[in-house]
Amino acid sequence: MVAELSILRDQIDDVDRQMVELLARRLALVEQVGVVKSKHGLPIYAPDREAAMLASRRQEAESKGVPADLIEDVLRRTMRESYSSENDSGFKCLNPQLRPIVIVGGHGQLGQLFQRMFELSGYQVRILGSDDWHRADEILHDAGMVVVSVPIHMTEAIIAKLANLPKDCILTDLTSVKSGPLQAMLDIHQGPVVGLHPMFGPEIPSLAKQVVVYCDGRQPECYQWLLEQIQIWGASLNRISAIEHDQGMTLIQALRHFTSFVYGVHLAEEDPKIEQLMSLSSPIYRLELAMVGRLFAQDAQLYADIIMSAPQNLAMIKRFHQRFGEAIAMLERQDKAAFKQAFGQVEHWFGDYAQYFLVESQGLLRQANDSTRRK
Q1: DSSP letter at 235?
Q2: Contact of 233 with 207, CB cutoff 8 Å
Q3: Does residue 218 sit within a domain?
Q4: Nearest Cα to Cα of residue 199 among 176, 217, 179
Q5: Shared domain check, 116 and 186
Q6: In this predicted structure, what is the pLDDT of residue 95?
Q7: Range of 9's domain?
Q8: Average pLDDT over the chain, rounded to whole?
Q9: Tell me, what CATH number does 83's domain have?
Q10: What is the pLDDT of residue 373?
């Protein structure tokens, strides 16, 4: 038995080595694709091309008795690496005449990410950090664009310091709250203004498939190139008003982060053995625990700012608290009929998305299970 297994495992090892060689070859070809895309100003992410390629490979896999989901998993992971590799080729500069870009707060992680993306696109970038305000006039005097990337609680105060920008300078920010900062920029600067909210953190290796929300401010024709440049980086754009943005972020960010915060506080107060929780958990609970745990590996000030950034956030959290209390009362009554009625109401609200999310989450759970190492 040992001899038979050894022969088969040697053959598997040989196939694995061939796979490594093929992946290396694929990545080398991707680098060449990146050069061509950079030259011609093509986005690194082409959704139609990706969808067609995956459909074709799935069909080929099935014809050879290989599970279609397997080849799609392999290709998606490979493409994620490929998008990161394409960054190294740089990007076409859509506005080569632009004067220097100044990133206010550019020493922060998000500022550094955008500095890198602009420099990969051939723009000159300057940084205005917290220790540089005595030189602010010198740094800003000929700016073609100013990007404000500072903590939320400082954003409007920093914008107020930017009163003497060149009239044609584009003023934008990267804040996750939009109404206040956008109005502050419109008040202080008479030139082009646009609000940006990158819906991702600074740790991403590529902007492919990421979302950047933008809120029009003034003279959109002057910053259209910026939006197109972001698309070349691979991101998708979502245009929305500042008010609608902040209303959406109340649910997407403030309420979500607050519930994770409270759950984390509850766990810490209950003080279970986290190793035991991990050993007992299914993939879905590991993911849920991971999503809570990652919050506490980051900056407390950032999340305090997000949660406490607007009065409507507190109002939403209070409504959630009320509904939580109503649900507890239902449990105290052991009212299964009411539970099923509420369940059906939510199921109806989700509609077809419920099944979509079920399928999507199953893929995530398979990946989580693959990465699990049991003793």
Answers
A1: P
A2: yes
A3: yes
A4: 176
A5: yes
A6: 97
A7: 1-88
A8: 92
A9: 1.20.59.10
A10: 63
pLDDT at 158 over 90: yes
**Domain identity same for 154 and 77:** no
- Evaluate the CA torsion angle 138, 214, 203, 184 in order and state its sign: positive
Whole-angstrom Cα distance, residue 253 to residue 28?
39
Same domain for 306 and 178:
no
- Does residue 186 sit in the same domain as residue 112? yes
Computed on alpha carbons and rounded to an integer, the radius of gyration of the chain in Å comes to: 25
Sheet holding 145-148, edge to edge: 125-128, 101-104, 145-148, 170-173, 193-198, 211-218, 236-239
Measuring CA to CA, which residue among 244, 240, 243, 260 is closest to residue 317? 260
Give domain status of residue 123, yes or no.
yes
Which has the higher per-residue pLDDT, 38 or 246? 246
Is residue 30 included in any domain, yes or no? yes
Could you give the maximum distance between any two Cα atoms of the chain, in Å?
A: 80
In this structure, are 68 and 144 located in the same domain? no
**Arithmetic mean of pLDDT, 183-187:** 98
Judge contact between 92 and 135, C-beta under 8 A: no
Q: pTM of the entire structure?
A: 0.85
Q: Are 142 and 166 in contact (CB under 8 A)?
A: yes
Pairing mode of beta strands 211-218, 193-198: antiparallel
Torsion angle of alpha carbons 153, 159, 161, 162, nearest 10°? Answer: 160
> Do strands 125-128 and 145-148 pair parallel, antiparallel, or not at all (unpaired)?
unpaired
Q: Is 331 helix (H, G, I), strand (E, B) or coil?
A: helix
116 lies in the same domain as 149: yes
Check: CB of residue 307 under 8 Å from CB of residue 257. yes
Work out the end-to-end distance of the chain between its first and last CA atoms, rounded to an integer number of angstroms: 25
Distance in angstroms (rounded) separating the CA atoms of residues 102 and 127: 6
Q: How many domains does the chain have?
A: 3
Distance CA 80, CA 342 (A): 39
**200-228 exposure pattern, b = at least 16 Cβ within 10 A, e = fewer:** eeeeeebbbbbebbbbebbeeebbeebbe
Name the pLDDT band for 354 (thresholds 50, 70, 90). very high
